[in-house]
């Protein structure tokens, strides 16, 4: 038994409850929150190390034997996502401690962050499809709270659209979950994969795969389901935008990887051209949107969409190499994008606006921040030795190796356009002279600069250590498609079907 | 039985989608409610009581007992009902606040 897998669920939950109880005693509540995210990050790193040396880890809730109960399974894909997410949450909490208004803190901002971490951790660890739905609801519920906490007009209107579209996506997920239970008679993902692989009439499985593609695609913001994202992402405080960009869409990407790689592997092969086409459309539409915007966080929101296209392209290649490259890119983009949004938030806070036309002269005013922004921008564009280069290189290599020249060409072109969109921010915010008198504006504090800067440094570290990290991601990609190994880890050496008939006797 | 359920589910989905395509926020939320009811019934039909006649419960001999409905779908539906109840409460509160901020129930007015 590896009951420690419950720790990343119990600790944030208890931490959130404690932080609510300690509401008035702000210092103590903050200390609890910081301790929880530090623990989660440490645990995530340890779990990733454990999974990479000892293979998949699994445990069963209430000791119900799999496949009857709910299993928690950590493989390299889940553990990597868990580690990176906890790391980003640590950054978000550190950034919030420096910047968030007292009003937010009084209205349970930190408990909501911890509940978001709880939902995300559960989604990455669960081995049960319906349980995945429940974790999605947990993380969505806290994201609704975080998004609308300020109660401004933009937040309420954007939040309403976000909530409604996500509810529709969740409902479709529920339909798919119900239908897959009717089809296969199980909800354990390993068991589902075994049963669906030997299905005699796969027509219904294709329909279910379509439902899941819609449900997870709307969460991941792929074309044509991304409209809620640019409506809502720029409205909350920068810390929330950064953590949403790092976690929310990427949980959708993770669910696509998990469900299509493991449960619906046959359908993945069948739907690969459609997924690739959607990935290409997502990249192009996202980057065109980014080029048309004139506000820092809006530009960055649209580039999130373009980057989701790259993540989904890894899935659409439908191979271990594709998934490995997709995972490497996803981890990289989570880190760098959150870093850039923290930096953009620091600028916005200091200058009082995120409008590109009004900003200017930041390279002279904040040279340190400008340096980190520049490095992060190079990373996102894919310039060596930053992490973005290796993520994109792996994707393009996998694309060329599998003869998918069209999507590879689109990905390479869009990459340049993303660079162009980021250069627009660079030119307007940092390079051009300011038209207004900025001498009275406050300087960016070290505490507000540090989280973003450290994430950019981390991207550089990933780039320098690209050898071992891409080996790890190659292993993760192979694991994500390896149903037999996953079933053995979940249900025992004979797989889930054998375990079930054994238990029935 | 399956036919009646199928027709009810179809009606719920049709009504839900019709309401959700209206411009009024209240009708949109009512549509979401109907949709969640439709899905709950859909999950119900997926249970073995309706379709396969074999609940995931076995007696000591490893055989499904007679006259027992599939308890798993009911547990799933219960979970889904609780979640949709909580979410509906939140959406209603959010719609009320948005209505106050915008001064209109029309989605076309809800632009920035």
Summarize the entry for a quick read.
Chain A is mainly alpha-helical. Chain A is built from 22 helices and two strands.
Structure explained in plain terms:
The complex is a heterodimer of chains A (505) and B (112). Chain A has 505 residues and is an all-alpha fold. Chain A has one domain (3-504). Chain A has 22 helices and two strands. Chain A has a two-stranded antiparallel ribbon. Chain B is mostly helical and 112 residues long. In chain B, 64% of the residues lie in helices and 0% in strands. Chain B contains three helices and no strands. Chain B has helices spanning 2-20, 25-45, 71-102. In chain B, helix 1 (2-20) packs antiparallel against helix 2 and helix 2 (25-45) packs antiparallel against helix 3 (71-102). Chain B starts with a helix and ends in a 10-residue tail after the last helix. The model of chain B has no long low-confidence stretch (mean pLDDT 86). Classes of the chains: A mainly alpha (505), B mainly alpha (112). At the A-B interface, helix 6 and helix 7 of A face helix 2 and helix 3 of B.
Number of discrete helical segments of chain A:
22
Number of strands of chain B: 0
Please summarize the sheet with the most strands of chain B.
none
Reported for the largest beta sheet of chain A, the result is:
2 strands, antiparallel
Mean pLDDT reading of chain B:
86
Note the beta-strand portion of chain B: under 5%
Overall body shape of chain B? elongated
Radius of gyration of CA atoms of chain B, rounded to a whole number: 19 Å
Give me the strand/helix succession of chain B.
Answer: HHH
Count of runs of 4 or more consecutive helical residues of chain B:
3
Structural class of chain B: mainly alpha
Q: Find the count of extended strands of chain A (DSSP E, 2+ residues).
A: 2
Give the helix/strand class of chain A: mainly alpha
- Report the helical percentage of chain B: 55-70%
Count of folded domains of chain A: 1
Low-confidence stretches of chain A: none
Quaternary structure annotation = heterodimer
Q: Provide the low-confidence segments of chain B as ranges.
A: none
- As laid out across the biggest beta sheet of chain A, the strand order is 1-2
**For the record, what CATH class of chain B applies?**
Mainly Alpha
């Amino acid at each position: 038994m590896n009951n420690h897998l419950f720790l990343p669920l119990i600790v944030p939950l208890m931490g959130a409850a404690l932080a609510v109880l300690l509401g008035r005693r702000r210092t103590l509540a903050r200390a609890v929150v910081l301790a929880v995210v530090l623990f989660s990050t440490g645990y995530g790193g340890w779990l990733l190390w454990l999974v990479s040396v000892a293979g998949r880890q699994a445990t069963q809730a209430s000791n119900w034997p799999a496949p009857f109960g709910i299993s928690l399974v950590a493989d390299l894909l889940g553990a990597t996502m868990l580690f990176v997410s906890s790391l980003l949450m640590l950054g978000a909490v550190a950034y919030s401690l420096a910047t968030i208004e007292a009003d937010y803190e009084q209205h349970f901002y930190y408990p909501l962050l911890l509940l978001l971490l709880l939902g995300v951790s559960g989604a990455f660890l669960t081995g049960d499809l319906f349980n995945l739905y429940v974790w999605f609801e947990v993380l969505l519920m806290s994201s609704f709270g975080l998004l609308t906490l300020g109660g401004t007009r933009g937040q309420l209107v954007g939040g309403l659209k976000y909530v409604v579209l996500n509810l529709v996506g969740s409902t479709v997920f529920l339909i798919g979950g119900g239908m897959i239970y009717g089809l296969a008679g199980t909800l354990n993902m390993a068991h589902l994969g075994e049963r669906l692989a030997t299905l005699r009439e796969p027509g219904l499985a294709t329909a279910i795969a379509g439902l899941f593609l819609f449900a997870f695609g709307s969460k991941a913001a792929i074309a044509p389901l991304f409209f809620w994202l640019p409506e809502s992402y720029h409205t909350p405080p920068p810390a929330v935008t950064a953590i949403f960009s790092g976690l929310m869409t990427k949980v959708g990407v993770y669910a696509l990887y998990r469900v299509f790689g493991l449960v619906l592997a046959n359908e993945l092969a069948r739907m690969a051209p459609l997924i690739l086409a959607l990935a290409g459309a997502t990249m192009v539409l996202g980057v065109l949107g980014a080029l048309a915007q004139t506000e820092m966080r809006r530009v960055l929101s649209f580039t999130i969409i373009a980057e989701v296209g790259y993540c989904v392209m890894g899935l659409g290649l439908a191979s271990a190499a594709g998934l490995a490259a997709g995972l490497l890119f996803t981890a990289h983009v989570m880190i760098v994008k959150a870093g850039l949004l923290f930096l953009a938030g620091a600028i916005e806070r200091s200058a009082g606006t995120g409008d590109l036309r009004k900003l200017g002269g930041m390279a002279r005013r904040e040279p340190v921040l400008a340096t980190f922004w520049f490095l992060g921008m190079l990373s996102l564009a894919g310039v060596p030795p930053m992490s973005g280069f290796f993520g994109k290189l792996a994707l393009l290599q996998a694309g060329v190796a599998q003869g998918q020249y069209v999507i590879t060409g689109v990905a390479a072109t869009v990459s340049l356009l993303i660079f162009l969109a980021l250069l627009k921010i660079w030119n307007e915010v940092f390079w051009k002279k300011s038209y207004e008198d900025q001498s009275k504006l406050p300087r960016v504090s070290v505490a507000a600069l540090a989280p973003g800067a450290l994430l950019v440094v981390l991207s550089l570290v990933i780039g320098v250590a690209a050898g071992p990290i891409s080996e790890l991601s190659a292993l993760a990609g192979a694991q994500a498609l390896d149903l037999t190994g996953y079933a053995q880890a979940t249900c025992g050496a004979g797989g889930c079907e054998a375990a079930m008939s054994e238990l029935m006797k | 039985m399956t036919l009646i359920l199928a027709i009810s589910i179809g009606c719920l989905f049709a009504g839900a989608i019709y309401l959700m395509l209206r411009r009024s926020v209240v009708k949109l939320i009512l549509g979401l409610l109907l949709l969640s009811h439709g899905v709950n019934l859909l999950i119900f039909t997926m249970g073995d009581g309706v379709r396969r006649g074999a609940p995931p419960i076995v007696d000591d001999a490893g055989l499904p007992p007679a006259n027992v409905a599939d308890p798993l779908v009911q547990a799933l539906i219960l979970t889904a009902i609780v979640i949709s109840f909580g979410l509906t409460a939140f959406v209603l509160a959010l719609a009320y606040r948005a209505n106050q901020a915008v001064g209109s129930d029309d989605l076309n007015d809800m632009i920035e």
